[in-house]
């Protein structure tokens, strides 16, 4: 005789406070990168995590605090991703060429990507905590890129006279302004290609023939 089946649903494993906070950050990253800060709802973040909305606020305090934490988290992920990407390339000059490829510029500004979080953050002038986090996140990315450019000076693929910090902020500024070029340039694809070529001449050493 088969054993009677219980009508009870299996209990979801209880997350530690650290794991719950991490799961909220992951869900919030998805929501904000898909629809932006203004349209992103904490109820949707809670739904994706499988908790109630008050739990989200208990962990972070406010929607702005959630977004600020998302930016810090995104900067860590992007820095790790940039380093891993550079490690897969034969030298930093090659990595620079891939970083500046028009198709990559398009990807980092597509909805659902981490890049749109930084673009969105700079429009939120009424949220000091978010602007401070955006500054902190961009500074972290600049340090990562400066380190990679310094490696490029060592491997000979980046100009020896380059200031790595200035080069890093040049790259960040170029990457961040793609939507501006897309809006006002008569031929955005040509402009991006020309700017990439100009940047490579400024930063990288020409490969030997």
From TrEMBL:
Protein name per its UniProtKB record: AcrR family transcriptional regulator
The HTH tetR-type domain, residue ranges: 18-78
DNA-binding region: 41-60
A Pfam cross-reference name: TetR_N
Family annotation (Gene3D superfamilies): Homeodomain-like, Tetracycline Repressor, domain 2
Keyword annotations: DNA-binding, Transcription, Transcription regulation
């Amino acid at each position: 005789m088969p054993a009677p089946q219980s009508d009870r649903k299996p209990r979801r494993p209880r997350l530690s406070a650290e794991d719950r906070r991490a799961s909220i950050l992951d869900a919030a990253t998805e929501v904000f990168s898909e629809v932006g800060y203004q349209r992103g709802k904490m109820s949707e973040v809670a739904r994706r995590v499988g908790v109630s909305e008050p739990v989200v606020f208990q962990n972070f305090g406010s929607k702005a605090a959630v977004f600020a934490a998302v930016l810090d988290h995104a900067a860590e992920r992007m820095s790790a991703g940039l380093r891993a990407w550079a490690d897969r390339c034969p030298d930093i000059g090659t990595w620079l060429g891939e970083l500046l490829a028009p198709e990559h510029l398009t990807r980092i500004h597509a909805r659902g990507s981490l890049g749109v979080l930084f673009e969105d953050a700079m429009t939120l002038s009424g949220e000091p905590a978010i602007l401070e986090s955006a500054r902190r996140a961009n500074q972290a990315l600049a340090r990562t890129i400066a380190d990679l450019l310094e490696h490029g000076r060592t491997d000979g693929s980046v100009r020896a006279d380059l200031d790595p910090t200035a080069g890093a902020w040049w790259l960040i500024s170029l990457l961040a302004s793609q939507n501006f070029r897309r809006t006002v340039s008569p031929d955005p694809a040509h402009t991006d290609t020309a700017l990439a070529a100009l940047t490579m001449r400024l930063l990288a050493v020409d490969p030997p023939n």
